[in-house]
Specification:
The chain contains five helices and no strands. It is flat and about 65 Å long.
Amino acid sequence: MSQDWQFVAIFLILSPIFPAAPVILNHLLGPKKPNPIKQQTYECGIETVGSSWVQFKVQYYIYALVFVIFDVEAVFLFPIAAAYGQLTLFSIFSVALFIFLLADGLAYAWGRGALEWI
């Protein structure tokens, strides 16, 4: 029994080393030649004008988050549609509840104004 747990202990000991080793080796062995051109903010080959810290409206992030949520949940409906003929009555009610909850979430987001692009 303890032999099985030895592999887990070895894994837990070695697992932080593998991602940390390249970072530490790069820090120790990598070239360090900073200059003003390398320290500038790079954005698509165009020199920045003004401050590079621009505040965006949080509404854009909410809009994107709502899109991602509904996009991922729409993917869950494809296997259900493919196996529609083999579903039991309980699974059909479960799918109907799932779609109802999606519609309820959409109505909530719409009512709160999260889908208005300003």
